[in-house]
Known about the structure:
heterodimer, A: alpha/beta, Rossmann fold, five-stranded parallel sheet, globular, B: alpha/beta, 13 helices, 14 strands, binds magnesium ion
Amino acid sequence: MLKTSDPAELQLIAKQTRRLIIEMITAAKSGHPGGSLSAVEILVTLYNDVLRHDPANPRWPDRDRFILSKGHACPVLYAVMAQCGYTPVEELKNLRKLGSIYQGHPDVRFIPALEASTGSLGQGLSLGIGMALAARLNQSPSRTYVVLGDGEIQEGQIWEAAMFGAYHHVDNVVAIVDYNKIQLDGFVKDILDLEPLVDKWKSFGWHVIDVDGHSIPALQKAFAEASATKGKPTAIIAQTIKGKGVSFMENNPKYHGVAPTADECTKALQELA
Amino acid sequence: MTAATAAMRDAFGTALLELGATCPDLVVLDADVATSTRTSAFGKKYPERFFNVGVAEANMTDIAAGFATCGLRPVVSTFGLFLSLKCADQIRNIIAYNNLPVVLAGNYAGFSDSYDGASHQAILDISILRAMPNMAVIVPGDAVELRQALEFALKRNGPTYLRICRNPTPVLFDDAPPFEFGRVRKLRDGSDLTIAVSGVPTFMAIEAARRLAARGVSVDLLEVSTLKPVDAQALVESASKTGRVLTVEEHTIVGGAGGAIAEAISSRCRAVIDRLGIEDCFGESGDYVLLLEKYGISSLNIERRADALLERTRP
Ligand SMILES: Cc1ncc(C[n+]2csc(CCOP(=O)(O)OP(=O)(O)O)c2C)c(N)n1
Ligand SMILES: [Mg+2]
C-alpha cells in the first residue's frame, strides 16, 4: 500500500480511483457514479495519508475508523480499499453481481475489513460517535472519520448526533460532508436547502472547516486542523462537484444513480487518461 | 394470463397522475426517491399538491398524518424498507393510533431493489405493518391489482399499506374480476393441496399449479392480496378440504403472509401448513430473478415444496 503525503502522488491515485469507479459501475450496469466521483479526493487523502490503518491487520484495535455513511458511494470505497490491498482489484468488475464481495452497499459479511455495513442514510454519524467515545473509554488514540452526503444530512438523526457529539466533547470524531449540492431527485437547493450549512454546524457546537473537497492539500490541512482541535468535534464541509472528473457527469443529477453506457465509459476513460 | 409484463411502480405513478384529476384532496409526499417511485410525474403536474421532503422519511410520514386530520388524502411514498422501519413509530403511534386515512406506498419491495442489496430490500415490511391495529395491508399480485388497490385505499376510512414491486412482472388480472378488499382470489379449484400465494410470486404459483395438475396433483390455488384483514373464511374452507397448505411469499417467513395465513387457519381447522418464503436471513446484491431463485422463490421450488408436503402428509 502506498502511504504518502505527497499531493502529486495522491493525485495519481485519485485519477486511477476515478477510472476504477467508471469501469466497475459500467460493468455492473447500475450503481452511483456521481457521489462516488465527488468523494474521491476525500477518501484517497484519508486512506493513503491520514488514517492510521494496516491492511495486513484490519482488526488492529487502535486503528482509526472510517465509515462511509452515504453507503451508495461504495464504488469509491471499494476502489480505494482495493488499491490499499484490502481486497482484489481484479474483482471490482463484479460489483453488484450475485456472490460478489462488492455488494451494492458496503457489507461486512463480504468485506470483514469494513467497520460496518451501511446503506440506510442518516445513521453513520451516530455510529461513528459511538466508536469515537469507545476509543475515549478505552484510552485508545483511535480517531473516527465519517463521510456524509449533503442529501443524507436532511435526516433528523444526523442533527441528534451533532448535538450529542458537541455536548460530549467528542473531539476524536470528524464528520466530512460531501457537499456536492445534488441528491437523488435533483439539486439540494430545490428540494430541501441546507444553507447556511457552515453556520448550522457551528451553532450545533462543532469546529467547522469549509474546504475545496477536490484539493488534496486543502483536505490534508483540514484533517490536521481537525486533529489539533480539542474539546469539540470537527465538521469538514467539503465543497465538491457531483460527477467530478467526467465532463458530462459533472453537476448532472442524472448520474446520481445511473450507470454509464459502454460509449460513455470510453469517453469518460479518455477524459481520465 | 397474458404474456405482457408491467411494473407496479409505473402503474402507481400513472394512477396517481390520473387520480390527481378526479381526486382534488389527493396529496402526494415522497422522500427524495420520487424519480424511482414514479411519483415525480404527479409532482410535475400538481406541484402544489406534491411535497418532496428530502431524505427525511419520518418527517414526511407525520406531515402526511397532519394532512389526513384536515380531510386531505395523502399518499406517502418511499422505499418499503425505510417506510416500514424508519417510520414505524410515526405510522404506529400517529397514523394507526389515530386511525388516519393515509396511503403508505412501500416501493421497491421484496427483492426488487435487487442490486442495491440487503440494506435496501424490504423483506420484513409485512410483518411490521401487519402488527399495527387499524392498518390494512395489501400485497398486489400484478400491476392491474395494484392500481385497483390504490383506488380502494384512497377511499378507505383508515390507513393502508400497499406493497409495490419495482420491476416488470407478468400481467395476470387484466381480464379478471376487479380486486376485492379482504377477499382471496380463487385461481384454481383443487382437492389435494392448497397453495396460498401473495404478491409477485403469484405468477410462479400459477405455473407450478399447472405443472402439478399435469402430473395429476389437484391444487386449490388462492391468491391472497389482502393480508390484513385476511380472508379467514375462504382460507379455512380450502384448508379443511385439502388438509395441506403451502404459503408462498416474497418476504421473510417470520410473520409475513405465511404467518397471517397460518394464524387464520390454525385455530379454526386441522391442516399441515408449510411456509415458503425468505428464511430468517438478509438478502444480497444481484439480478432480481437470480436472487428470487437463490432464495427459493421460483415456480420450480414451489412445485418441489408442494411435492414434499404431499409426500410428508401421505395418509
Ligand atoms: C434512509 C434512506 N433513505 C433513502 C435512501 C435512498 N437514497 C440513496 S442515495 C439518496 C440520495 C442521497 O443524496 P446525497 O446524500 O447527497 O448523496 P450523494 O450526492 O453524495 O450521492 C437516497 C435518497 C437511502 N439509501 N436511505
Ligand atoms: Mg449530494
